[in-house]
Amino acid sequence: MNKPTPLSGFPELLPEHRAIEQQVIDTLRRVFELHGFAGIETRATEPLDQLLRKGETSKEVYVLRRLQAEAEGADSGMGLHFDLTVPFARYVLENAGKLEFPFRRYQIQKAWRGERPQEGRYREFTQADIDVVMKDDLPFHFDVEVARVMAEALSALPLPPMRLRVNNRKLIEGFYRGIGAPDPAAVITIIDKLDKLPAEQVATLLREAGLSGEQADQCLALATISSADTSFVDQVRALGVEHDLLETGLAELAAVIDGCSAVRSEQFEVEASLSLARGLDYYTGTVFEIYMVGYEFLKSVGGGGRYDALASDGKNTYPGVGISFGISRTLVPLISRGLLSSDRKVPSVVLVALADEESRPASDAVATALRGSGVPCEVAVSAQKFGKQIRYAERRGIPYVWFIGADGGHEVKDIRSGEQSTADPASWSPPESDLRPTVVRAENQ
Amino acid sequence: MNKPTPLSGFPELLPEHRAIEQQVIDTLRRVFELHGFAGIETRATEPLDQLLRKGETSKEVYVLRRLQAEAEGADSGMGLHFDLTVPFARYVLENAGKLEFPFRRYQIQKAWRGERPQEGRYREFTQADIDVVMKDDLPFHFDVEVARVMAEALSALPLPPMRLRVNNRKLIEGFYRGIGAPDPAAVITIIDKLDKLPAEQVATLLREAGLSGEQADQCLALATISSADTSFVDQVRALGVEHDLLETGLAELAAVIDGCSAVRSEQFEVEASLSLARGLDYYTGTVFEIYMVGYEFLKSVGGGGRYDALASDGKNTYPGVGISFGISRTLVPLISRGLLSSDRKVPSVVLVALADEESRPASDAVATALRGSGVPCEVAVSAQKFGKQIRYAERRGIPYVWFIGADGGHEVKDIRSGEQSTADPASWSPPESDLRPTVVRAENQ
Questions:
Q1: Domains in chain A, start-ordered, CATH in brackets?
Q2: What's the pLDDT score for residue B58?
Q3: Mutate which of A2, A5, A10, A12 to disrupt the B interface (most B C-beta within 10 Å)?
Q4: What does pTM read for this prediction?
Q5: Model ipTM?
C-alpha cells in the first residue's frame, strides 16, 4: 500500500488528541449520569424514508448497498443517520412498552452527512445529545432541566466559554399573530435569515410575504431584543402587542432564563435572544442554540428545543425537549489550530526501566504492583542505556521512570523536575493530577 | 409513523442493557490503559479497494453512495469497515511519522458486515481490539504481552469464563515442511477445517492435496495435541519430526503458554491447541482464538495473532501482534437469553421526593448537593403521593428515596430494605457498590 492520505471531511485524531476527545466524552457522560440520564446507542442505519422526511438534509444522506446484493446497484433502503434525533424518535416508538417515562437519555455517537466539508462541518462527526421524553404530556420544568444539565456539562469542559441563546416559538408566533401577520410560520422562516441577510432585505422579504411596512418593522424590532436576564419581557411589552400565546411564551422564556441563573458563569453565558427561530418546523416552544465564544464563525455548535410530538404511533404521542452538542465541531478546529493539546501520547504514568533482559520479570512485577494501585504503566521495550530509556519516556510525555537498582532497591524519577526518590511499588502513587493526560488550552490569537 | 420493528442483524439495547455494555467497555478500557495502550478511533469508512483485498469478507461489505451524487447509483468508492484491523493498518501508515513506536493501541468501535444474521453474528457489532505495532522489528515478548493484557481484561468482565487457545504458524508450517509436505500453506487451509469436518474427511482432503497416507496421519496427529501447560512440546517431539522452523515455533508457543501462567484462573483458561490454524493468510507466528466456555456454539468470540507485515508502504514495514474481542458477539446472546441483566434502568442512585410543587427548589438543592458528592440522582417529576413516588423509584431500580420533612429535616430510605434514617445532603453517600447498576449473571440452563 502506498502512504494513504487523509479523507476530506472524515477527521481522525492522533492518540494524544483522541485522549482529549475521550476526556470530553467522559466529562459529558459523568454530568449527564449525575442528573439521571441513561446512555443509549442506536444503530448507524435508518430506513431511507425516515431519513428523508426532513427536507433540509435529504440530499446529504449516505445510502447503503450490500456488495453482494443481487441486483446491480440495488440500495438496501437504508442510510446512515445524519443526526441522533431521528434514530431516537424511532427507538422510543419501537421500545415504548419497555421504557419508563419520563425517559431521560443521553447519546454520544457518530453521525454522517454528505455535505461539502469545511472547518467545523464534517462528513463524519461525533455529537452528544440529551433529551427528556414523556408520554402524552411533558411538564415545562424539563425545558429548564435540559438547559441546566447541558450548561453544567459544557462548563466542565476544557473549552472556550459557551453562549446559550434561548428563545420561544410561542412567544414569536404569538407576537406575529398579535400584529395580524397572515402566515406566522412564513414569518419565522424569514426572520431565521437575519444572521445571513441585512435587516432591510429581511424587511423586504416580510413585505413580500404580505406584511405591511409597520408589521415588518414590529417583527424586526422584536428580533433586536436580547438580554442576559428577564428584562426582555418589559422590552417586548413596550412594543404594545397583545396575544395569549405571546404571554405564554414570555412566561416560559423567562422561566428558562431564570432557571439558568445558577449555571451562569464566565464559562457559560445564557441569553434570551428573540431573533433566534431555528428553521426546523418541529419545535413548538423553547428553542436553544449554543455558540462557542470567539468562534462564532463556526456558527452554532449545538442546539435543540421542545417538540410536542417528537414521535407518535397514532395511539400515543411522545413530547420531548433536548439539546445537542457538537463534539467534532468544536474539538477538531481547536485541535487542528493547535489551541487544544495534551501532554501525553500514551496513558502510561510510569515507564519501568529495564536493567537487562534477565531482569524483565522484576520490572514486570513492579508494573503489576503499580497497576494494582490503578497506575497505568509500561515496561521498557529493551535494556537500552538508561539515558535512552528516559528519552523514550520523554518523547511520549510519560512523567515518571522507575529504576530497580543492582541491590534490588527501587527509585522513581520525575523526569520533568529531575527529582528522584526511593519508592515502594506496592504503595507508591503519583499525585492525582498525573494520573491522566493534562489537556492544555491556548488562547486564540 | 407506525410502530417500527427491529432490524434483523442490528441489535439495539434497552437502557438497562446498555448499562451492562457500557460497564464492559469501561472495564476493557481501564485494563488496556493500565497497560499503556492508547485509545484511538478510526473513521467508519475505508476505500473499497482496501476492503476487498481480503477475499474472505469481500462479499459482505456495505458500499456507500451519497444520495446527491450526480450519476444515478454511482458509488463513492468507500465502504464501511468490517473489522478494525484494515483501518488500523491504514492509520499506522498514514500517521507513521507522528506516532511513537512501539505503538500500543486499543480500539473499541463498531464494524459492519452484510452477512446473514444469526445469534452472535450481527450486521452491526462492537468489538475491542488491542495491537502492538513496531517499525521493522517487533520483539517476541509482545506476543506474550497482548495475551496477558487481554486475559486480564476479560477476567475482569461479568461474563462466563473464557478459553484462550494458542498455536503458532511457524510450529505447524515447520512440522509440515519437516514431513515433506509439498505445499504447507495448503495443509494449513485444510487442517483449519477440522472444526467443521470429521478427521477422515480431512485426511482425504490432505491426500488429495498430494500428501501420503502417512504424512496425512502425521498432520492429524499433530492437530490432536493440546495442553494447558508446556507438555505439548514433548508430545510434538514424540512424533519424531525435525525442522528448524518447528523448533522456533515450539519455543515461541511454550513462551506464550508459560508467560500466561500468572493470568490463568477459573475465569480464564489458556491452552496450547495445535489444531488451531486461523484461515487468514497474514498471520506469521503466534495465533489466538477465544471461546466462551459453555457457549462454544457461538464459535470463536475473539482472535488474533502476529503478522510480520501488518502494513508496509514500500519503505518501511510495520509488524504487529494483536487480539480482538467481540463485545456484541458475547453480550447480545447473553442479554437476549436473560442470562445477563442489570438492576437499574437509570443511573440515578437517589430519587429526591417532592412534597409539593412549591418545594421544588428545596428538592433541587438536595439533588445538587448529592451530585456534588458524585451521587447520580433525580428529582420527582411531580408531587404525587409518596407511595407513588416510591413506586416510581422501584420501577426504575433506584435504590434510595430522599424525603424532606415539613420541619425541613432530611431522611433517606433504602427502598430495598425499608430502612430509613436521617441524613445530611452535604455529606451522605451510599455504599460504593450502589453507585453503579449491578450486573447480574445467571447460569446457562
A1: 15-341 (3.30.930.10), 350-435 (3.40.50.800)
A2: 60
A3: A12
A4: 0.96
A5: 0.96
